[in-house]
Amino acid sequence: MNLTVAIIVLLIFGWLCLAGQVLAVLRFARRPLATMTPADQQPVSVLKPLHGDEPGLYENLRSFLDQDYAAAVQIVLGVNDPEDTGLDAARALVDAFPEHDIELVVDRRIRGSNQKVSNLESMLPSARHDILVLSDSDMRVDRDYLRLLTPPLQDGHVGAVTCLYKGVSTGGLWSDLGALQINFGFLPNAVAGEALGVGGGCFGATIALARGTLADIGGFARFRDELADDHRIGDGVRARGLSVELSRYLVDAQVYEPSFAALWRHELRWARTMRQLAPAGFVGSVITYPVALAILAAAGTGFSSVGCTLLTITVLARWAMTAAISRLLGLSVRALWLLPLRDCLSFAVFVASFLGRRVRWRDQNLYVEPSGRMTVAD
User: Fold this and answer.
1) The pLDDT of residue 110
2) What pLDDT sits at residue 33?
3) What b-and-e string marks burial along 195-234, b requiring 16 or more CB atoms within 10 Å of the CB?
4) What is the distance between the alpha carbons of residues 363 and 378, in angstroms, rounded to a whole number?
5) For position 63, what pLDDT does the model report?
6) Strand 207-210 and strand 158-169: pairing?
7) pLDDT score at 276
8) Any idea what the CATH number is for the domain that residue 168 is in?
9) Number of Cβ atoms within 10 Å of the Cβ of 362
10) Which strand (E) or helix (H) includes residue 325?
């Protein structure tokens, strides 16, 4: 019974967490977007490391060409395998838009266990401009992206600008579940963390920084063996006495999960990474799973009237929170009927994250060390 009482206490904190997330998102949604005149816009090199031919890759890459931006924009695409299937989309883009400044880098050299960072390291010499924008290959943006992203870099106290992202399912049950986790799990948690000053996030969806800042924090070479390279880049910027600005702009993350196994591996990798980066905070994040806690509390009371009432209140509160956040941020409500299943799956991933340190990423089995660095597992 004592365990049941403890779960109910956690559940109450979970209700408070739901309310806090809505308030944080409301504040975030009202935040103005910075802008600047065309004369003040600076040339930008956008670095897009590729790995495989994911659905919508060509359209993702093309969206970075269609920018309402007065200054020069260079797109650098890179792979570390000449047989990489993502090359088809990259070459098609180069052929279709010869008037655009697009550089394609193919370099076999692998430096460290993080292949994405190794790819970026190979791409950097081809970047011609001082403002660098790093963005994962599954991101898609609109024409205002660069115009709204880069202004904070004019502030001498800002070392980097980063963006959160919303999930856009490419179709299918597992992709729908993956998008729900991004939109109604990760996104409100990240916004709330930033509002409380404990998030400290820097996200691979977008990191914009000056070339000199990157050099000052040790360049890409410093992050060759970091699984959470994006977070470590943010840590490096802050260590130099500069801030990381979280933009109000949200990019679209194209979510493609072909199977349950793929979804599970992806989310388990992220959970185990976060557990190593912030172990105390990760344990405390148990309150962000109120539906699972309510189910446990109901079971602990033998599904008594009190337990079932707590479960009903929790489910209704979760739906209300989801509805509010979807309206505030313009999120898709596609497959929202899957939310209870999504919440239970998220809690299962949370529990499984404590049962090992191995992850699978980019066709590699990796071992995550307590520091967050990784090595290739046997």
Assistant:
1) 85
2) 87
3) beeebebbbbbbbbbbeebbebbeebebbbbbbbbbbbbb
4) 13
5) 96
6) antiparallel
7) 78
8) 3.90.550.10
9) 12
10) helix 305-329
Reported as type and span, the H/E element at residue 103 is: strand 101-106
Owning domain of residue 203: 1-378
pLDDT at 270: 85
**Would you state the structure tokens that stand for residue 33, as one six-digit string?**
């977007």
Helix pair 290-300, 339-352: axis angle to 10 deg = 90
CB burial readout 146-164, b (16+ within 10 A) else e: bbbbbbbbeeeebbbbbbb
Tell the burial category of 305 from Cβ atoms under 10 Å away from its Cβ (0-12, 13-18, 19+): exposed
Residue with tokens 């904190």: 13
Supply 370's token pair. Answer: 């307590």
How high is the pLDDT of residue 359?
Answer: 64
* 242 phi/psi in degrees, rounded to 5: -110, 160
Sheet holding 358-361, edge to edge: 358-361, 364-368, 374-376
At 10, the amino acid letter reads L
Q: What is the pLDDT of residue 1?
A: 54
Looking at residue 189, what is its pLDDT? 92
Measure Cα distances from 228 to 64, 193, 224, 361, 368 in Å. Answer: 24, 17, 10, 12, 10
141: closest CA among 60, 57, 28? 60
HEC profile of 147-176: HHHCHHHHCCCEEEEEEEEEEEECCCHHHH
Rounded to a whole number, what is the distance in angstroms from the first to the last CA of the chain?
Answer: 44
**Count of domains for the chain:** 1
Cβ atoms of 368 and 359 closer than 8 Å: yes
The amino acid occupying position 376 is V
Give the residues of the chain that fall short of pLDDT 70. Answer: 1, 199-200, 359-378
pLDDT at 369: 66
Which run of H or E residues covers position 375?
strand 374-376
Region at 52 (left for phi over 0; alpha for psi -120 to 50; beta for the rest): left
Provide the pLDDT for residue 48.
96
Which pLDDT score, from 0 to 100, does residue 378 have?
Answer: 55
Measured CA distances, 188 to 18, 68, 74, 283, 307 (Å): 9, 29, 33, 18, 27
> Are residues 119 and 80 in contact, defined by beta-carbon separation less than 8 angstroms?
yes
